[in-house]
Amino acid sequence: KNLSQIYEKIQREHQISPGDFPEIKRMQDQLQHHDFTKFNILKPRLLEAVDKMLAEDIARLMAMIPVEEATASKESNIIRGGAFDGVMNDNTVFGYGRGEGVDAGSGEPEWIVAKDRYKYDQLFDNLNPVDGKVTGSAAKQEMLKSKLPNSVLGKVWKLSD
Length: 161
Description:
Blueprint: H1 3-14, H2 24-31, H3 44-64, H4 67-76, H5 117-126, H6 136-144, H7 150-160
């Protein structure tokens, strides 16, 4: 009945992004067949164990995945020969995907971030940096405002360290 309010409460209390929750309607359909009196009480100790696993254990496991597998699967999807020969050529500004995504601004005389940097400098300064660094909790609070799933936020966090 009040699942949306429960979602909001959990989001606030545990700082979970809305994107990490299942669709409300589907969840309501599944939950209507359960007896809530038989559910166990939430144990904070278990949540701490999951947080530790996500922060440390998963990162350690991901580091164990061989890099060769990742590059081999990427290379197998590239079309070779014929009309596609040279399309991926990085030596020309007309190459496939040039000037887009992570390549945006390449070849420009000015750093692409410079035109909007004042916004981000102001945001950073509002986080009260000390010696050019912000605390982890301040960074986390700001990142949570993006409403991105925790899986994405975790990757951004790793890149920023």
